[in-house]
Write a structure and sequence with these properties.
874 residues, 7-stranded mixed β-sheet, Rossmann fold, 5-stranded parallel β-sheet, alpha/beta, 9% strand
Length: 874
């Protein structure tokens, strides 16, 4: 009996041990430097006191693997070839490729022969700028070389897709491949570890640092117990490079030093990666002298590059020499750069133009240097904007695929939790029935209970990852809207000035491009809110006929410009006031009408509205069935196109995107919104004849409402924003361009502008001088706009001062936060001129009305802060 009790206690201690060990591990909320430091310990970078020389550990593993047969040989030799290929160590890779090819031919092993062909092509693919694989190559290795080669080739495919910016495909393939590798078992564990590492590169390129670090950690946990020293060096490089790209340069330098020591101690490498990491950190720090010092030991390989990475290093050195005014050295490197074969690396005119500008500046040709720098800047801006617009949709699709993978994993873990609980209960029953197996039954129950806790924790982490993706989309919204505000605001102000016809056309093109990017951004945010279940329908009483008629009327200029006849017709009796969400109905109808006009080059577009009582009691307050129909005589669609029409990011074919533009989000969002409004959307179309989209939904009737005169749109337009004239406006924003935009907007109204760069400065201004209205940015250093608004509301003198929040955050929860902090209204960035003036005019009018009601009893300090004509006359 004593032995039995001792055995049970030992089982409990062992079962609880791993749980206690996990307490000290830093979580996802830990600082970046701490997480990277923990990751290096997981890799075991500090344990290799006597590192193998000349990659002895890889060589031993290769000798052991080549003597075996079957799967053991295939997967063992994959580790050897992949390690040398990934670190681009050419000589040993070539030697082992030859040995593996000879063994494959000797034993007639087609899988082994396919492996050496795959990795040889992958080596050339990575060293020559990811251009070696053709579609025929991918088809061969993924479809025609067997299940094991397909798994190995899929890892190369994920790496390729991530490097060329096809993030969505990379994320979907990685999710599917992870499931396949987990099913394959222990023999595929090194491949699963590499999949996590490769996928972390894609997430890092997308800006998802938490996701990247998470996958790096998983890779370390899977294979670092017996990882090759060369692979440990590569992982340390990845940590240092990730820290540098995320802006933590001190942490990056520390890991670069560790990488340099490990590279020097271990040997087996020409130092290209070590010198590149050092130079990249110096480049991000804007230290050209430090960059040259980093590249000095690698002068021979930089002078005569044989790999794409060395070509990049040559360009970095030429740029640094130009920055330091060493024109001769920069010119020699520029000549070397232009002499590189395009097979090895394509020409980069932007880098060459920048180097030429620095050479001109160093030799005293300032005017030519300025012209080249200006041309470089314009081209770089265009390329950056184009790439940014393209990557937004890619990023959203990739995040959606990543979220779907998390959901699938969460569902699987939930099922395992349920199974584990059932097994735990069954083990207790078995223990009771079989007294002989009491100890085993209890131990099994404890083990299952611990497994259940671990699986619950994994499910919690998956849900946290989903929340992190939503937060990432909110940050992306803010970061994209801030530069859009400057671009569109200055363009609007410029258009109101004296311009030639050509200049006005160019400004209109800027506004059209910016509006297109804004529509795409709003579509992506709407789609993410729908996916997260955070978008709600808010019906209000209104006139549906007038809502649709006004919207169609707004598209008449577009239709006239294209020569298309656009009409709106009420196909039933007027329904009277109805309860519907006007914003979402206009959004759905906008998507359908704009699509119809886009794909119709001649003929007509008709919009029809019909409203019918759903039952006999409608006249006494029942429900109404609404049918909204949009028909066109455009290009039409076939059945295959209709079948995939409502998918996200889907259009008819590639030529549709080239000819008409768009991302394919509008119809997907429309279908989801219609479904949320208790309706459905259908489509009928014939290719070359036209299409008919029909929305049918059920809405409630409403009591007749009369709008007060001050809310009437026409009345508002007639005021001409009188309440704004001559006001003193405090503009609080940390971006000078944003303050400049608002100044240009308000100049025609003779407003006196006072500027502040943060909330603390704004409070100081309000304490020193009278202000009529405040335009408050939200995200600022020192003190943000929300905190500043809360503090000014605590001052009795400023309690009724109009404050309008200006922010790029457009999520409903963020807007509510602004209003809860004390703001009177909210204006989203990019700022629309008409919208800003209307909101300011209404706020000033309401402030005047409040002061008038307060009468002459208002305190002198309040009158001083808002000297309106009404108060002065009183």
């Amino acid at each position: 009996m004593r032995r039995l009790l001792t055995f049970l206690v030992l089982i409990c201690v062992l079962a609880a041990g791993p749980v206690a060990a996990q307490v000290d591990a830093p979580g996802a909320d830990a600082p970046l430097a701490q997480r990277l430091e923990q990751l290096s310990r997981d890799i075991g970078a500090q344990e290799a006191r006597r590192p193998p020389r000349d990659n002895e550990d890889i060589e031993r593993a290769g000798e052991k693997a080549i003597e075996t047969r079957g799967e053991a040989r295939l997967y063992g030799l994959w580790r050897v070839l992949y390690a040398y290929k990934s670190s681009q160590v050419g000589a040993p890779f070539g030697a082992w490729a030859a040995r593996v090819r000879e063994a494959a031919r000797r034993d007639h092993d087609t899988a082994l022969l396919a492996l050496v062909d795959l990795e040889t092509l992958a080596y050339r693919h990575e060293t020559h700028g990811y251009r070696a694989f053709t579609e025929a190559d991918w088809q061969r290795f993924l479809d025609k070389s067997g299940a094991d080669i397909r798994l190995m080739a899929s890892i190369e495919r994920v790496r390729h897709l991530g490097q060329v910016g096809r993030w969505a495909e990379a994320a979907r393939l990685a999710a599917d491949l992870k499931t396949d590798l987990e099913r394959r078992g222990d023999i595929a564990q090194p491949l699963l570890a590499e999949l996590h590492q490769v996928h972390s590169y894609t997430l890092s390129d997308m800006g998802d640092k938490e996701g990247a670090l998470d996958h790096m950690t998983r890779a370390a946990a899977l294979d670092e117990r017996d990882a090759f020293y060369l692979r440990k060096v590569e992982r340390i490089y990845d940590i240092g490079f990730t820290a540098a790209e995320l802006g933590d340069l001190d942490t990056a330098r520390r890991f670069a030093t560790l990488h340099h020591q490990m590279t020097r101690n271990g040997g087996g490498s020409d130092g290209t990666w070590d010198r590149f990491l050092c130079a990249r950190i110096a480049q991000l720090s804007n230290q050209p002298r430090e960059l040259l010092a980093c590249l000095a030991p690698a002068q021979a390989i930089v002078d005569k590059p044989t790999r794409r990475l060395q070509v990049i290093m040559l360009g970095m050195r030429a740029t640094a020499l130009g920055q330091l005014g060493q024109a001769d050295g920069a010119r020699q490197d520029l000549a070397r750069l232009r002499g590189v074969s395009t097979v090895l690396s394509p020409r980069d005119p932007q880098v060459e133009r920048l180097i030429e500008a620095y050479i001109d500046q160093a030799e005293g040709r300032s005017q030519e240097a300025f012209a080249k720098l200006d041309a470089w800047r314009k081209t770089d801006t265009v390329q950056t904007n184009r790439e940014h617009a393209r990557s937004v949709s890619e990023m959203s699709s990739a995040l959606e695929a990543e979220l779907q993978a998390k959901r699938d994993e969460s569902r699987r873990l939930t099922q395992e939790v349920r199974l584990s609980r059932s097994l735990a209960r069954a083990s207790v029953v078995i223990a009771l029935l079989l007294g002989v197996l009491v100890a085993g039954g209890v131990a099994w129950a404890l083990h299952q209970r611990r497994t259940s806790r671990n699986l619950k924790g994994a499910q919690t982490r998956a849900e946290a990852a989903s929340q992190a993706k939503s937060a990432f989309l909110a940050v992306m919204s803010h970061e994209l809207r801030t530069p859009l505000n400057g671009m569109l605001g200055l363009a609007q102000a410029l258009r109101s000035g004296q311009l030639t016809d050509e200049q006005r056309e160019q400004v209109d093109l800027i506004l059209d491009s910016g509006d297109t990017l804004l529509v795409l951004l709003n579509d992506i945010l709407d789609l993410s809110k729908i996916e997260a279940g955070k978008l709600e329908i808010a019906p209000t009483a209104g006139d549906l006929v007038q809502t649709c008629a006004r919207l169609v009327g707004g598209y008449q200029p577009t239709a006239l410009e294209k020569g298309v006849d656009l009409t709106f017709r009420l196909e039933s009796a007027a329904p009277g006031p109805l309860m519907f969400d006007g914003v979402r109905v206009r959004q759905c109808l906008t998507n359908l009408v704009s699509n119809a006009l886009k794909f119709t080059t001649h003929g007509k577009v008709e919009v029809g509205l019909a409203c019918y009582p759903e039952d006999a009691n409608t006249e006494e307050g029942g429900r109404v069935r609404v049918r909204l129909r949009v028909s066109d005589t455009g290009i039409g669609m076939n059945e295959a196109t209709i079948a995939k029409l409502f998918r996200a990011f889907t259009q008819a074919d590639a030529s549709t995107t080239r000819n008409f533009g768009g991302t394919g989000l509008g119809l997907n969002i429309t279908r989801r919104l219609v479904k949320m409004m208790r309706g459905e959307i259908t489509v009928e179309s014939n290719e070359g004849v036209g299409s008919v989209f029909t929305i049918e939904m059920v809405v409630d009737t409403a009591e007749p409402l009369e709008l007060p005169p001050e809310l009437d749109e026409a009345g508002e337009a007639e005021t001409g924003f009188i309440a704004l004239t001559g006001r003193r406006v405090l503009v609080v924003d940390d971006h000078p361009v944003n303050r400049r935009v608002i100044r240009l907007f308000l100049e025609p109204f003779e407003c006196e502008l006072v500027e502040a760069e943060n909330g603390q400065r704004a409070l100081e201004v309000l304490d020193q001088q009278p202000i009529d209205i405040v335009l408050m940015d939200v995200n600022m250093p020192v003190m943000d706009g929300l905190e500043a608004t809360r503090r000014l509301r605590q001052d009795p003198r400023l309690a009724r001062l109009p404050v309008i929040a200006l922010t790029a955050d457009v999520m409903s929860a963020q807007i509510k936060t602004c209003l809860d902090a004390g703001c009177d209204a909210h204006v989203a960035k990019p700022i629309d001129l008409r919208n800003l003036l209307s909101v300011m005019d209404r706020c000033m009018a309401r402030a005047n009305a409040r002061d008038l009601v307060a009468g002459l009893g208002a305190s002198p300090s309040v009158a001083m802060m808002r000297p309106t004509p009404v108060l002065q006359d009183g």
